[in-house]
């Protein structure tokens, strides 16, 4: 049985291994028994260490015809790229050293399937045992032996690492013990549920790689390329407000790039299908205005870097899904959460969009949890969140037709003296709202500046299958300049927002529309 992190962490000293000679060959840290390698049409990459100049013969044996590949150790490293292997298994992968010794290292029970990376902060670290319905979910774990898990240990580094310096959970077949570790340890509820929902549709192996840390800002997960692009030169530590007690309980490293360096960069050679992400809470008061640059740029940068690291195998536009922030403080007047939600979409309100291609989003603002044991910033409704994400993945990553994954978004706005008629891009299930629609008025034809203009709540009444009417009261001779929806930290009660998809599954995301 596993003890909890940090009691159980395998430490490796591979970082210095590149210069040794005379040592026998081995695989890089994150190759192991029970692992999932990326299936066809992509090619999986295998690499490791070895003594100078020896040749290495890698053999894949299992379902298909035995196949061998050879490589030579150069600069302490050997590497092979397998031919595409279709989903399934089990396979064994052995690497044999030719020269010096005949050392052999073997990975057993290897499956080929889709590999997904799961990143972010505490709401991604939140474990299966912490979520609602955890006991039922843990009981089911053993029914999904083809959904395999791996978890990177919490490590920081001032420089980009070649390999992981620690592993929290080596590649494993899921068990209730592994999924139900202590709070915020192992294994991620959103990551696991996402993988198991996908598996129910795909019916072939899924590999889940968790690499996340509670209380961390996007800057820690971003390379210097991203920070430079967004004009961030300062380290984050000094500007962070540690007074937020709920955030504090899960506070992690804040320094620029330290987690990119230690927990993402080492994984770049791995061929992956895509990534999911749940983060943003720690940026509500840290470079919040820049999140519309940092987050989309981090996605671009991860895509470019994984594409290069895998020798072109991970797609340059691999699908990237994320959870739009849920809720934190009921009644809060602070704009942090609404601003981050908006910036998570690069200020479009929906994804995918022109700026954020092949992305998908789970809206979660209607899943508040005032009584969560871990503070309201950590809602326990992770099944819903993961389910919504899995719909996005099926539609965007797998191109399944007819999977609806986006809540309604306004497509046309008509305005007369007394009303604003908002037509959504799909039929809606709408209920009257007294205060979630707000307008902003101006004497000039300009966009509302939230600091100079004030917002007024206006009543909304449903009108027909895709349209709602907002009554314009209060502009008194000025023009209605902007309209926004659900622009607050905690907009609605559980699954009780005013606008949903017609089947009542997907909430309409918040929006901010300017007339000019
Ligand atoms: C390794 O190979 C290089 C190039 O073939 C050669 O110059 C070098 O002497 C070899 N080193 C060893 C330790 O065999
Ligand atoms: C893999 O290796 C194990 C242990 O050596 C062996 O029992 C098994 O039959 C092998 N499986 C395949 C597919 O070669
Ligand atoms: C728990 O699971 C059941 C059955 O899947 C579902 O109906 C229920 O809504 C879930 N409860 C929560 C709180 O997620
Ligand atoms: C990836 O593989 C290359 C060898 O092709 C190696 O030099 C590098 O250290 C590996 N790791 C990373 C993070 O690039
Ligand atoms: C990002 O948001 C800020 C503040 O809301 C805004 O001033 C800026 O123009 C936005 N930048 C981009 C690239 O959308
Ligand atoms: C404005 O539109 C609303 C909704 O269609 C309608 O009820 C109202 O009569 C219109 N008002 C004027 C002044 O045309
Ligand atoms: C939307 O609702 C209208 C009126 O009920 C119906 O005729 C139409 O088929 C619906 N559209 C879709 C795409 O379901």
UniProtKB/TrEMBL annotation:
<keyword id="KW-0378">Hydrolase</keyword>
<protein>
    <submittedName>
        <fullName>Sialate O-acetylesterase</fullName>
    </submittedName>
</protein>
<dbReference type="GO" id="GO:0001681">
    <property type="term" value="F:sialate O-acetylesterase activity"/>
</dbReference>
<keyword id="KW-0732">Signal</keyword>
<dbReference type="InterPro" id="IPR036514">
    <property type="entry name" value="SGNH_hydro_sf"/>
</dbReference>
<dbReference type="InterPro" id="IPR005181">
    <property type="entry name" value="SASA"/>
</dbReference>
<dbReference type="InterPro" id="IPR039329">
    <property type="entry name" value="SIAE"/>
</dbReference>
<dbReference type="GO" id="GO:0005975">
    <property type="term" value="P:carbohydrate metabolic process"/>
</dbReference>
<dbReference type="Pfam" id="PF03629">
    <property type="entry name" value="SASA"/>
</dbReference>
<feature type="signal peptide">
    <location>
        <begin position="1"/>
        <end position="22"/>
    </location>
</feature>
<feature type="domain" description="Sialate O-acetylesterase">
    <location>
        <begin position="114"/>
        <end position="309"/>
    </location>
</feature>
